[in-house]
Amino acid sequence: MKYKIAVIEDDREINNILFRLLTDSGYEAVQAFDGSEASRLLKAENFDLVLMDLMLPYKSGERLIAEIRETSQTPVIVISAKSMMETKLEVLRLGADDYIIKPFDIDEVLVRIEVVLRRTAGSQHSDSLEVGGIVLNNTENSVTLDGTAVRLTAKELMLLRLFMEHPQKVYTKAELYESVWNDTYYYEDNTINVHVSNLRSKLKKAGGRDFIDTVWGIGYRLKGEG
After folding, report:
1. pTM (2 decimals)?
2. Are residues 30 and 59 both part of a single domain?
């Protein structure tokens, strides 16, 4: 299977570097050079992953992420010169799956893409998981709560799958990070907190109660029914 990746970057030199990197690595890449062009492209075609800048003409990267998340769980990796932690956290809250700061290392970009695609494709589990009214369909990567669809980002979906596979287990932040991001957890950068908080809010909005417990000093687990 050849993965199809949208490259959204207004700097033509950087866009072409990423395009060549992806095509040389066996991916199908499609380019867009501004926010409006990207918006039309993302509505017209289906992609396995979106690689995008934030500072785009006509329509910002933040607006594009919000648009994508209205209808899709397509993974989004942001590559941006904005290095402020507040910006990174806000982009993750909007639904991005990863954040790479410019100037970037091409090998790192490829590894991040491989990790996100591997994790979103997921290992083959049973067709569905069901806990406390939450149903996660592993074939379609979709979630319903008491019959109502719940839209989650790729990372939120992976976190929920982990919680549902072992509903009594308390996961440390390190365990969650290493399982979902497939990387070593070195220090607290709030990434886990943001994603778990987003997941908790979406489930609570759909079901009217909290579904995730914070076990102070340890980590998180799926909350028992009640």
Report:
1. 0.58
2. yes
